[in-house]
């Protein structure tokens, strides 16, 4: 990991994700070769075979399991969360629609250097020597204003 000053953290370079549409090769800036073997082990479609912790929120020790997963892995899958299946499907559908936009379109709602919400790389990216193969969209509260920018005639479903 890299040690950075506060000024290093606040750059557009650390916010704007890689433009997946325009790269022609594998950029060295994104090569995490030491992790390839590890990543191959954890990528699975069956939660029973997953090395990533799967946490049942109905379990009496769910809080402890979440804490352990965060400290050990930084990621976990949640089951029995009580979120209706139809809502999960709607969120997945809108996420696909958002990430199907061109990079240029998504950058219309790029997170500001000092902001917490919008499109961009995670705030932890500057702490690593290599860039992440990641793009994200952080929402806190309502995303209606961003939806108006991306879909000016179709944002009503975000109310």
Low-confidence stretches: 1-11
Strand order in space, largest sheet: 1-2
Q: Alpha-carbon distance between the termini?
A: 40 Å
String of helices and strands: HHEHEHHEEH
Helix-strand makeup class: alpha+beta
Gross morphology: globular
pLDDT averaged over residues: 77
Q: What percent of residues are in strands?
A: 5-15%
Largest sheet: 2 strands, parallel
Number of helix segments?
Answer: 6
Q: Which bin fits the share of residues in helices? A: 25-40%
Number of strands: 4
Gyration radius (Cα, Å) is 18 Å
If you had to describe this structure to a student in words, what would you say it looks like?
Helix content is 30%, strand content 8%. By secondary structure, the chain is α+β, with helices and mostly antiparallel strands. Strand 1, helix 3 and strand 2 form a beta-alpha-beta unit. The longest helix is centred in the middle third of the chain and has 15 residues, at 85-99.
Describe the secondary structure blueprint for this structure.
Blueprint: H1 6-9, H2 36-42, E1 54-56, H3 62-72, E2 77-79, H4 85-99, H5 103-106, E3 118-120, E4 136-138, H6 144-150
Parallel strand pairs: 1-2
Antiparallel strand pairs: 3-4
């Amino acid at each position: 990991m890299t040690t950075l000053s506060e000024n290093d953290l606040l750059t557009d370079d650390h916010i704007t994700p890689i433009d997946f549409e325009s790269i022609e090769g594998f950029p060295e800036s994104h090569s995490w070769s030491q992790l390839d073997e590890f990543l191959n082990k954890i990528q699975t479609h069956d939660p029973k075979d997953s090395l990533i912790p799967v946490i049942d929120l109905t379990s009496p020790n769910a809080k402890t399991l979440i804490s352990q997963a965060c400290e050990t892995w930084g990621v976990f899958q949640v089951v029995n969360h009580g979120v209706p299946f139809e809502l999960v499907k709607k969120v997945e559908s809108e996420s696909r629609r958002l990430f199907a936009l061109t990079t240029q379109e998504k950058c219309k709602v790029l997170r500001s250097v000092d902001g917490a919400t919008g499109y961009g790389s995670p705030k932890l990216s500057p702490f690593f020597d290599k860039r992440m193969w990641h793009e994200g969209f952080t929402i806190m509260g309502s995303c209606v204003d961003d939806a108006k920018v991306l879909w000016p005639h179709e944002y009503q479903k975000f109310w």
